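Hello, quick one for you while I still have it in my head. A protein chain has come my way and I'm curious about its shape. Can you walk me through what the C-alpha cells say about the fold? No rush at all, and the record is pasted right below.
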Amino acid sequence: MDKELPFLVFIRQTIAEHYKNGYFFVLLGFLSLTIFFNFYFRLEKSLMYPLASHVSGIFIYILFYGFAYFSMLLLVLKNKKALWKSKRLWFLSLGVIVSLSVSATYFYITPIIHSVENPEHRYLVRKILVNSRNIFFVAFPALLLWRYIKDKEDAFFWFSFKKIKLIHYVLFLLPVVFLAYLASFSDSFLVTYPTFKTHLASNMLGIDKCIWKWIYEGLYAFDFVWVEFLFRGLLVIGLFQVLGRDAVIPMVSMYCFLHFGKPLGEAISSILGGYFLGLLAIYSRSIVGGCFLHIGVALSMDIFATLRL
C-alpha cells in the first residue's frame, strides 16, 4: 500500500484496478441477483428469521454468510491458489462468519423475553437484550482475534486518528445524512425506524422510558463499533497482508447480506458504503472513520424518523 498517496488518489487507483480485473461486474451481478431473490421472495424474513430462535439457526446463518463471502473470495483468488493455504485467511474469515451467525440468532435470550408478562416491559427487555448481546458474543471473541493478528504499530482495536482529519469525515457524512433525511419521508422507512419506539416501551424499574431510549441508543451505537471491527477491521485490515486491496470485495458481499433484513434502499446503499469504508480502513489502518460515519448515519435515521412520527 502506498501510504504517501493522497486519499482520493488511493481511491481512484483502487477503483481502476478492481474495474480492470472485472471485480465490479461480477460483484454487482452477484449482489443484484441475490438482492432480487431475497426481496422478491422475502427469503431472509420468511426462511431465516424463524430459525433465529433455535440453535440450528447458527448453522443456517453460517451457510448464508459463508455463501456471500466465499463466492467473492473465489473471484479474487482465482489466479492465487496458494493463498487458500493461508491460516490467517481461514482463521479470520471463519471467525467473523461464526460471530455474525451467533449474533443473528437469539435463542439464548428468548426464554428471558417470554418470561416478562407486561407487553411494554417485554418490548423494552427485548430491545435492550438484543442490542447488548454482542458485548458478550462478539466483542470478547473479537478481542481475542485482534490480539492474535495485530501488528506492533497498530492502535488498540485499530482506533487510530492519524491519517484523516475529522473534518473529512464530516464532509463525507453530510450528503449521506441528507439522503437519510429524504428517505425518512418514505412509509417503508418509518416501518423500520426509529428502531426504538418509545410509545411501546415502559418506565421499567422506575426509570423513565425516555431515559431507556438513550440507554438503548448507546447500545445501538456500540453495535456499529463491532460491525466496523468485524468487517473493516478483521476482514479488511486484518487480511490486507493476504489479499491486499482485494480484501474489500468479499467483505462488501457479506456486508450487503447483513442488510438483507433492512429496507431495500439500505441493502443497495450498503454496497457502495461498504466498499468506500473498506478503502478508508485500508488507507488509514483504522476503523475510526467507519465508526463515525456508521453511527452518524444510523442515529440520524433514528432522529429523522422520530421527528416524522
Remarks:
- The radius of gyration is 20 Å.
- Residues 7-308 form one domain.
- The mean pLDDT is 90.
- The CA atoms of residues 56 and 264 lie 27 Å apart.
